[in-house]
Amino acid sequence: MTDRGCFITLEGLEGVGKTTNREHVEALLKQEGISVLVTREPGGTDLGEQLRHLLLHASAPVSAEAELMMMTASRKQHVVEIIEPALSRGQWVLCDRFADASFAYQGGGRKLGADTVAQLHELMNIHLQPDITFLLDMPIADGLKRMAARGKPDRIEKEELAFFERARKAYLERAGSQPERVKVIDAGLALNAVQDQVSTALNAFLVNHRG
Ligand code: Z5A
Fold it and tell me: Model-level pTM?
């Protein structure tokens, strides 16, 4: 029987370096002889990418509830079509954002609350949990500054500062309640120092995983 693959996620607010560190995690795993399937949310499937486009570029207002349902619809399709089959055949999966983002942005940022997010996942039968999550955390203003250099913001990036403060708080609460899984990384440091923290946490996970 093939061993099940591990599911790794990267989380954090805008500009914290998820994309940059995704490449670092991928390279570290490659050195260990582990190839990963890299994917993202919202997105990762044809349907998910179409939902992503709507979510990030809708020109008319989107209600908080509709936003949560579209994020969750994208996730359900992603889990069923891509993530679960990969894990079952022993493939490791590295995902840029997953359910923690809904707890942060819709539960915290949009004030829907963690219970609503959890109930919808329960209703949709999404029980998959990452084996390890890197939560890249830094002061919001600094992340937004990094993003400003990148050009035109999308619909969610245009939100007020208080929205991101609520999302950050929700992320950190989730990390505090699941410290074994969620590794908080100080993303405000120079890139090599950020990557050192990621390497340390990932190596500890690999040692533990290999028993
Ligand atoms: N969303 C949601 O609301 N609910 C959900 O359930 C899900 C998502 C799944 C799309 O996410 C949006 O969907 C997102 C949350 C919402 N909305 N917002 N706003 P996304 O992941 O596609 O978008 P993003 O958060 O805006 O990610 P990003 O643009 O890809 O940023 P990043 O990956 O975190 O950062 P980066 O591209 O790696 O780095 C940004 C810049 O900083 C870049 O120039 C780097 O070279 C630089 N950088 C990186 N690290 C450093 C360090 N350490 N020092 C200096 N400079 C650095």
Answer: 0.97
